[in-house]
Amino acid sequence: MPVPRTGRLSGTMSELTIVHLLRHGEVHNPTGVLYGRLPGFHLSELGRRMAEVVAETLATRDIVEIRSSPMERAVETATPTAERLGLKIQIDDRLTEAFNVFEGVRVGNGTALLRDIRRYRYFLNPFRPSWGEPYVEVVARMKAAIDEARERARGHEALLVSHQLPIWVTRLAAEGRRLWHDPRRRQCALASLTSFTFEGNRLISVGYSEPAGALLKESAAGEAGPSAGA
């Protein structure tokens, strides 16, 4: 779906504001661990190329505000766009990855988590989920960050760089869908944009695009495990 452009609604004085949620690019993760909030995980060479492609795509957008999760991979994804637009990146902890008890565990295709019966207690409630930060809490902090960015960029556009799970559950909530889901079916690829368009304070549409889509076939990154996010 094309990303809509900012403007005033025909025949009205209502301002349109767009808040883009950008997922970071591919991460260098040779051991295949679920890195979550662990420090020291940076973009791979491909991830840096993804960030540059996104910057080229957004160079002509009316973006006046850029915020990023504090994780290195998110800041590195935001940097090329910020440099092109001459904007400072504001670090916003509310955009960070969801907490997960399996951080640091090698997940492979996801089955590795099931080999230790001591971990089974974390799978008791997939609706919350029991292995990490509750979905409702993730949505609440993301919504607060979006609302603040919308106010600061009113009539223009804002770019918020975050992670797959926070972006996806925020979209589910905005579209009135249930928050628990199959991680394999998230529409939130690496370096993708999920764009919320507001008329005043009212959300009127949600768009999705993959500026770096041509590079995705080169990525070996997997999203296995319970709400692996990334």
Task: Give a description of the structure.
By secondary structure, the protein is an alpha/beta fold. The protein has a single domain (16-216), classed as Phosphoglycerate mutase-like (Rossmann fold, 3-Layer(aba) Sandwich). Helix content is 25%, strand content 17%. The protein contains four helices and six strands, in the order βαβαβαβαββ. It has a six-stranded mixed β-sheet with strand order 3-2-4-1-5-6, sandwiched between helices. α1 (45-58) packs parallel to α2 (72-85) and α3 (135-152) crosses α4. InterPro entries: His_Pase_superF_clade-1, His_PPase_superfam, PGM_Phosphatase.
SSE blueprint:
Elements: E1 16-23, H1 45-58, E2 63-68, H2 72-85, E3 89-91, H3 135-152, E4 157-162, H4 164-174, E5 193-199, E6 202-209
Parallel strand pairs: 1-4, 2-3, 2-4
Antiparallel strand pairs: 1-5, 5-6
Kindly list the characteristics that best describe this protein.
230 residues; alpha/beta; 25% helix; 17% strand; disordered N terminus; Phosphoglycerate mutase; His_Pase_superF_clade-1; His_PPase_superfam
Give the DSSP E fraction (strand runs of 2 or more residues): 15-25%
CATH architecture: 3-Layer(aba) Sandwich
Distance between the termini: 23 Å
Gross morphology is: globular
Q: Describe the sheet with the most strands.
A: 6 strands, mixed
Helices and strands, in order, run as EHEHEHEHEE
Estimate the mean pLDDT confidence. Answer: 87
Tally of contiguous helical segments: 4
Please mark out the parts with pLDDT under 50 across 5 or more consecutive residues, or reply none.
Answer: 1-13, 222-229
CATH class category: Alpha Beta
| Radius of gyration computed on alpha carbons | 17 Å
Relevant CATH superfamily: Phosphoglycerate mutase-like
> In total, how many domains does the architecture comprise?
1
- Fraction of helical residues: 10-25%
Would you tell me which CATH topology applies?
Rossmann fold
Count of DSSP strands: 6
Which sequence of strands runs across the widest sheet? 3-2-4-1-5-6
Alpha-beta content class:
alpha/beta
